[in-house]
Task: structure prediction
Amino acid sequence: MGFSTDAIHAGHGIDPVTGAVVTPLHLTTTYAQEEPGHHKGYDYSRTINPTRQVLEQNLAALEKGTWGLCFASGMAAMSSLFQTLKCGEKVVASDNCYGGTYRVLRKVFAHQGIASEFVSTQDLEALEEAMDDSTRVVLVETPTNPNLGLSDIRAIADLIRGRQVILCVDNTFATPYLQRPLELGADLVIHSMTKYLGGHSDAMGGALIGLSPELRDKLAFIQNAHGAILSPFESWMILRGIKTLAVRMDRQCKSALEIAHYLEDHPKVQKVYFPGLKSHPQHDLALSQMQGFGGIVSFDTGSLDSATKFSAALKIGVLAESLGAVETLVNHPAIMTHGAIPEADRLRSGITAGLLRISVGLEDVEDLLADFAAGLDAMG
Ligand SMILES: Cc1ncc(COP(=O)(O)O)c(C=O)c1O
Result:
């Protein structure tokens, strides 16, 4: 089936009791048992919920995995992966990653004896050097948040083949519509579904999707034992969001490319980060591992003062955390989403005081361009 057909139908089905076309929202916490231990496959909603189960099957189909597991947020999904690790084991992660990934590894899992090292996963030699016998997870964010650097998933999968290491790709920015890491050799995909999959800034969620049944068993055990599950209501909202993912992404990719070109040609803009630009150092890699360039454009205004004036002048773009929704959101990574990363590390990966990240929404692109023109004018 094509992507949009799967997005709308995979995992779903006509309700056998009522004929309802839309997957029902099962708010029950518990299920009747005929006799102790004999039931219809559902016993308690932390362990299994029919609405969440449909979303898990839907995600598995979209990412070309065999299973999916849903959690209360992207961070809950990520933490559940790290909870499979033992004291003394290590995670190697992309250095230009979401600030919360850095925070949870350095400020939570470090206290439990789980080591982490952040390297540019765009540099295979640096990645190889960072891996040692204790490394169990390589976490690659591609495109990275916020500088949109790309890592070569196929090459990293080749590099770690034969080692006892899980290659996990954070596919939040690309979504399975634009990139399917499992087909490129990764073992696991992670999503913040709060972003493009939900798509409307009204539901939080996270997911892990993979192929290995052993890995599924380990993660499903953590999902149930630790209990950071996705609620039935959020599952239902995200299922609804996914149905329009392809059309939203098509429009957001198109508008983002136009905006990236506009910013690149503007004399007040110091640098534009967007994989769809020929000037992007990994434009060719984007063409070979992605089916589109995404809806996020980051650019450097040169200073905190300019970034502040730009965002204050906007009438459509909203200065807010998060991304991937119908409305255009503008974020200042150094102060907002990536504030947990020490300044020296931030600067090394290009997160300057003047950097802004735009999550391009579904508004008319002419209106967005006019809004950004006003923002650039206000920079003085
Ligand atoms: C790339 C990426 N991964 C993970 C997360 C964490 O997801 P959540 O906010 O749903 O916990 C985010 C959040 O911004 C993100 O951008």
Q: What stands out?
A: The chain has a mean pLDDT of 97. Residues 73-75, 98, 100, 141, 145, 170, 172, 192, 194, 204, 206 surround pyridoxal-5'-phosphate (CB under 6 Å). The chain has 14 helices and twelve strands.
